Amino acid sequence: MARKVIIDSDPGIDDAVALTVALFDPRLDVVACTATGGNVPVEQTNKNLQALIERLDPPRLPRIGCGAPADSGTPTDARHIHGADGLGNLNLPVPELHHQHRAEKIIHDEIKAAPEDVTILALGPLTNIARAFRRDPTLATQVGQIIIAGGAINQIGNITPAAEFNIYCDPVAAREVFRLPVTKTLAPLDVTRNLEFALDLIDDLPEETTRAGALLRQLLPFLFRSHRQQLGIETIHLQDTMALLYLTDPDLFETEPMAGDVETQGELTIGATVFDRRIASTWRENMDVVTSVKAEPVRERLRQLLRNAGEAT
After folding, report:
1. Residues with Cβ within 8 Å of residue 232, at least 6 apart in sequence
2. Contacts with 9 (C-beta within 8 Å, 6 or more apart), sequence order
3. Cα separation of 312 and 309, whole Å?
C-alpha cells in the first residue's frame, strides 16, 4: 500500500528534483503539495509549485495549498542560487488559480482524512506546518510522522555561520515544530555535505523527450553554474532529495535519537539548531536525526528513481 505524503516545499530547483521523484514513485501517494516562502518569496513559490505539477502532470494530481508570508522570521531568499524566479529563470507560465486553498488548511484536512497514516515531508521553512498544528493541536495525535530537511548538528550553517537556511527563514515556526509531541526525523546539513553530486548527474537524467527529463535538463545545469559562480564549488548538494530518500529508503541511512531545539533570539546564532549531547543531558529526546548516509547506494537509488520518472512521463 502506498504511503500517504504531504510535501511542503519552497520550490527551488532542489525541491523540483524531489517533487519529480516523489510524484512518480509508486511507493508514495502524494495527497497534497503545499508551498512556503524560502528560496524565493511565497508569492513566487505558490506559482512555482503549481507550474511544476502542471508541467509534470503526474497520474494522480495532489491537492495544492498556497502559503502566506511568515508572521515572524528573518527575511531572506536564495535567488542567487536558484534564479530570480526560483526555477533557473525559466519563468514557467501558470494560469491564476481562482480558488486558492491555504496550505495550513490542506495539511489539516489531509491529516484528519487519514489519521496516523500521513507523513509530512518538510523541504522548506516550517511556517505552514507550525500554523497547521497551531490551528488544531489535536493533529499531534493524528499525524504519522514529520521528516524535516534542515538544521545542522554541529552548528555550521549555510546562510549564517550558525544557521541552516530552512530553519533560519522562520526560526519561531521551527521551534514550534521541533517541540511538537510527534514522531520527527531531521535530515541535517552535516549529512547532506557528505552526499555530493557531480556534473555527470545530468547524464543520468531522463531523456529530454520526457516531461521529467525536459524539466530537469533545464533546471540542473543552472544549479551547477550557480554553485560554481556563487560558491566556488563544482558539485551540488540535494538536501531535499536526501530527505525524500530517507522517507522511501531509510535503510540507506543511520539515525540517532537526540534532544533538539532552535535558537530564536541570538544576535549571532538565530536559527541555529541546538542539541543537548552532554553525558548528563537534561533535555528529553524529541526526534531522530540522520547522522550518516550510504552515499553510493543513495546516488544509485536516485538514478533509478529518475529513470522511473522518465519512463512514467
Report:
1. none
2. 15, 18, 19, 33, 34, 35, 36, 45, 49, 123, 124, 240
3. 5
Q: In this structure, are residues 290 and 185 in contact, taking their beta carbons and an 8 Å threshold? A: yes
- Residue position matching grid coordinates 553525558: 279
Report d(CA 83, CA 195) in Å as an integer: 23
Gap between the Cα atoms of 266 and 264, Å rounded = 6
- Residue 29: all three cell numbers together: 501517494
Residue (of 154, 158, 107) closest to 128 by Cα position:
107
Rounded Cα–Cα distance for residues 246 and 28 (Å) = 13
For the CA atoms of 145, 297, 201, 2, the dihedral, rounded to the nearest 10 degrees, stands at: -40
How many residues are there in the chain?
313
Residues 6+ apart with CB under 8 A from 61: 53
Instruction: Using DSSP bridges, classify how beta strands 287-293 and 253-258 pair: parallel, antiparallel or unpaired.
Output: antiparallel
Whether residue 189 contacts residue 151, with contact meaning beta carbons closer than 8 Å, is answered with yes
145-203 confidence digits (pLDDT tens): 999 999 999 878 999 999 999 999 999 999 999 999 999 999 999 998 888 999 999 99
